[in-house]
Amino acid sequence: MAVDQLSLVFSALADPTRRAILARLAAHGDATVAELTGPFAMSQPAISKHLKVLENAGLISRARRATARLSHLEAKPMREATDWLAEYRRFWETSHERLDELLAELQQSPTNGANDG
Amino acid sequence: MAVDQLSLVFSALADPTRRAILARLAAHGDATVAELTGPFAMSQPAISKHLKVLENAGLISRARRATARLSHLEAKPMREATDWLAEYRRFWETSHERLDELLAELQQSPTNGANDG
């Protein structure tokens, strides 16, 4: 099985630590491995492994600045993931609309009943 | 590490066969394992394994009808995944807007230059 880019992206996102790293980069901007390790009960090598997975999926880029290596959020691959998911929006929205209709009917029925007779 | 629902969903989507199964259920409705195996160069047990991963992530439900077991698309967990990704939309849109601005500038410059003098 060829590993396609979309699979790499979904796979990289399938971990709460990696999602937290992306959230941190989004909120506070570029960061070193040491800065990214701070909030987690994890070793720096463990965080480095997660960064490699994110980099491999194209979700971060890394650049050396002086003695540190800065991670930078690259959100574009998430767009393809979002586009893929958007194809299924009508399925969850349809069931949601049906629920809304059902609730509207239920809310109407007792009132009608009370006014009758 | 606790395996959260969102990680299960992203992990289930990180495979082209599983995504193709979901696309098939979306396009043609509920299907048996045999029907889902048809389009793939894969054994029925291999497809069954993929169905278990999808079921575990809440992306399909399975119901017995007569002698067959039908898989049914459950798109709702994709909504949470889409919501998570939506938080990052501004990052890919911002860079896209910047590119649009840059292109507009580039397209304007030669025209201005040609009209000058």
From TrEMBL, chains A, B:
Q: Which GO terms describe its molecular function?
A: DNA-binding transcription factor activity
**InterPro entries per the UniProt record, alphabetical:** ArsR-like_HTH (IPR011991), HTH_ArsR_DNA-bd_dom (IPR001845), WH-like_DNA-bd_sf (IPR036388), WH_DNA-bd_sf (IPR036390)
Q: HTH arsR-type domain location, by residue?
A: 1-93
A Pfam family cross-referenced in the UniProt record is HTH_5
SMART domains the record matches: HTH_ARSR
Q: What is this protein called?
A: Transcriptional regulator, ArsR family
